[in-house]
Amino acid sequence: MAMPETIIQRWNEMTDDEREQTTTFIDFLLLRRKQKQKTHFEFGALEGGLVYIADDFDKTPDEFEEYM
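Now predict its structure.
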């Protein structure tokens, strides 16, 4: 979809500060849309569905021993 000429005209009439604010608002709208598209899991969603946990799950990896 091409940008309507009226939008370009309005953009050209704005001050630099107004353009900055407009760009920030567009970024906000796009971020809000992305956040709405995220999948959320309900508490207990994996209940009865987790099949395997390694026996050494809680063991600190050797690479991190010096930090413990």
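The mean pLDDT is 87.
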